[in-house]
């Protein structure tokens, strides 16, 4: 192994007083993730969210949602312009601060490959121009910041350790620091121009092994990302698609293949409402979307991981399949509140009621994913058994009202039935198993009943048997390969979505007021003018998933220019890090909801792969 280039020595001085984190717009945070857990770092170099040891375990850094605990490195001089970017195809974030007389960077990552019990936060300060004078603040508190703090003490020339209640920490790379009675460690670090300084924080629920070698950990992490994210140079928006791969990889547990929907809980979808949720769980539908998106680009371990997860869950639970699970496969806990102030405009809660719902469309998406694996000759016997189990569940329960994709009150949702039809058709076509003719017959029976109950008098699909509104979710099954050309109802349905649910090139999922807007353009040119004042955007933001569904619908119709316009418009709805949330506030140009939202990144990737062939 080549020896690292010697770095100029750094000096450490006594620290100044440092204030706590000030919340920033959601788009200004970047994700660090290693598959076992994720952290959010803000533009001022403060890591303000991290759960240890796993995704839905209590946070040890919870200042993001009004709790305690953070790890900040930022310039001492507050007069700076923050910035930053990901190293292409990775979740290695480099924060960059431009000062009057200096440029300072801090590269941040969670070390990978990951240890399921130990989180390793790597931070490397660089003095790009002029001296780097930075302050450090570390406060570790379990239980979302409610538990008593860990109080570090020196255990070596440049190491500090603490332990409380089974949680252990070690900070390496700081010779001199001050520790307050509340456990907060602060320090001041000066790095000469051209120099670097490594800091390593280890957090674990088990005894810590030997300290991490920072140089080796960085090399291993860089090697991990180089092997995880494929070349996307042939795709539209190549850098964004590689970021999508990195996000999906970072949210996927290496040991099990399970992918969490997002890294956070309780980030507001609408300020002052009761729509703040915990997305640190594995939605099987979202995992299917990710697997299908990656499969559209080519064979990849992320598709294999998705197939493995849904196969195990379907075989274990059969018709009792839950829409969501914990990352380890257990049931999602009941919702409960936390005694915290919350992110501004939001209330803190953990757990999710969706874990108890029945969502029929999940079975259809499972079958679509298993069919995609079969097309790539990557489906084993257990996968075929899982497909048969899913078909049996659909046969017994397709008439049953469900909570649907949007997890609302139970109803006879059209999208759920069309998703079942698509799953049955693709599985019958691609699995080449005995008895699949009956799967086609079942698909035809479901479609016939759905046509009879859910076709609007104007000649398009409507939301549900008892709800005549249009819903952007209907575009998803209509763009499946099981439905060549989207069927005769795709175009009128797409036109209704564009007329009633689009604004300034972004798409909402449905109208909350139960009405449509007359006089919308419906021109199909990608302008997305809804017309009139209406209520779009008042109760929730545009759904970025739906913007990518609109792009896919236009492509299925053969309207490739419109498809490209919807794709390009939707992918603008990010912050500097290029991460998508679930929703986007069109008028204020702000992200809404938990971050990052896996299925939005998946749909960007899938659209890029499909547009490549046009």
Description:
It is built from 13 helices and 26 strands. By secondary structure, it is of the alpha+beta class. The strands form six sheets. Strands 1, 2, 3, 4, 5, 6, 11, 15 and 16 form a nine-stranded antiparallel beta sheet that branches. An eight-stranded antiparallel beta sheet has the order 7-8-9-10-17-14-13-12, with helices on one face. Helix 2 runs antiparallel to helix 13 (598-612), helix 5 (361-375) packs antiparallel against helix 6 (381-397) and helix 5 packs parallel to helix 7. It starts with 10 loop residues before the first strand and ends with a helix.
Entry summary:
With 614 residues, the chain is of the alpha+beta class. Helix content is 29%, strand content 20%. The chain has helices spanning 214-228, 238-250, 284-297, 301-317, 361-375, 381-397, 414-430, 437-454, 475-478, 490-501, 544-556, 560-570, 598-612, and strands at 11-13, 30-33, 38-41, 46-51, 59-61, 70-75, 80-86, 93-99, 103-110, 118-129, 132-139, 153-156, 159-164, 167-172, 178-179, 185-191, 196-204, 282-283, 324-325, 336-337, 349-350, 502-503, 506-507, 542-543, 583-585, 590-592.
């Amino acid at each position: 192994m080549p020896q690292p280039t010697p770095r100029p020595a750094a000096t450490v001085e006594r620290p100044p007083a440092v204030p706590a984190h000030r919340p920033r717009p959601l788009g200004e945070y970047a994700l660090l993730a290693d598959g076992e857990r994720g952290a959010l770092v803000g533009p001022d170099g403060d890591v303000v969210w991290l759960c240890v040891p796993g995704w839905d375990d209590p946070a040890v850094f919870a200042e993001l949602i009004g709790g305690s605990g953070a790890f900040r490195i930022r310039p001492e001089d507050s007069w700076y312009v923050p910035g930053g970017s990901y190293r292409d195809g990775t979740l290695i974030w480099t924060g960059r601060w431009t000062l009057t007389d200096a440029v300072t960077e801090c590269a941040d990552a969670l070390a990978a490959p990951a240890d399921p019990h130990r989180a390793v936060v790597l931070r490397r300060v660089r003095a790009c121009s002029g001296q780097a004078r930075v302050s450090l603040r570390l406060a570790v508190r379990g239980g979302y910041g409610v538990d008593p703090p860990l109080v570090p003490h020196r255990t070596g020339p440049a190491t500090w350790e603490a332990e409380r209640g089974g949680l252990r920490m070690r900070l390496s790379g700081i010779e001199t620091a001050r520790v307050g009675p509340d456990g907060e460690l602060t320090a001041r670090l000066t790095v000469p121009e051209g120099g670097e300084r490594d800091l390593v924080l280890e957090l674990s629920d088990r005894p810590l092994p030997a300290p991490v070698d920072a140089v080796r950990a960085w090399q291993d992490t860089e090697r991990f990302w180089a092997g995880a994210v494929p070349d996307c140079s042939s795709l539209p928006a190549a850098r964004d698609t590689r970021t999508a791969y990195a996000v999906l990889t970072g949210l996927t547990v290496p040991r099990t293949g399970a992918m969490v929907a997002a890294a956070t809980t309780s980030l507001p979808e609408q300020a002052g409402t009761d729509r703040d949720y915990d997305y640190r769980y594995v939605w099987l539908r979202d995992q299917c979307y990710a697997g299908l998106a990656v499969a559209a680009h080519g064979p990849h371990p992320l598709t294999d991981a998705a197939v493995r997860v849904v196969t195990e869950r379907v075989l274990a639970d059969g018709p009792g399949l839950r829409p969501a699970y914990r990352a380890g496969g257990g049931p999602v806990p009941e919702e409960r509140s936390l005694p915290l102030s919350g992110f501004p405009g939001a209330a803190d809660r953990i757990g999710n009621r969706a874990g108890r719902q029945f969502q029929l469309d999940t079975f259809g998406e499972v079958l679509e994913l298993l069919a995609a694996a079969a097309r790539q000759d990557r489906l084993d016997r257990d996968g075929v058994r899982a497909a048969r189990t899913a078909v049996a569940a659909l046969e017994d329960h397709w008439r049953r009202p469900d909570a649907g994709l949007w997890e609302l009150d139970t109803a006879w949702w059209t999208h759920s039935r069309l998703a079942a039809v698509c799953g049955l058709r693709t599985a019958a076509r691609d699995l080449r198993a005995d008895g699949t003719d009956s799967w086609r017959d079942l698909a035809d029976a479901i479609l016939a009943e759905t046509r009879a109950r859910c076709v609007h008098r104007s000649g398009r699909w409507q939301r549900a048997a008892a709800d005549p509104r249009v819903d952007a979710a209907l575009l998803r099954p209509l763009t499946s390969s099981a439905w060549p050309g989207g069927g005769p109802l795709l175009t009128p349905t797409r036109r209704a979505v564009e007329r009633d649910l689009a604004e300034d090139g972004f798409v909402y999922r449905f109208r909350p007021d139960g009405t449509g807007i007359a006089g919308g353009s419906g021109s199909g040119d990608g302008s997305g003018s809804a017309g009139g004042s209406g209520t779009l955007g008042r109760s929730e933001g545009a759904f970025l998933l739906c913007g990518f569904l609109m792009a896919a619908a236009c492509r299925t119709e053969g309207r490739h220019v419109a498809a490209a316009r919807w794709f390009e418009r939707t992918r603008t709805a990010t912050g500097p890090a290029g991460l998508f949330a679930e929703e986007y506030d069109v008028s204020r140009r702000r992200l809404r909801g938990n971050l990052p939202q896996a299925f939005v990144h998946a749909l960007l990737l899938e659209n890029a792969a499909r547009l490549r062939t046009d």
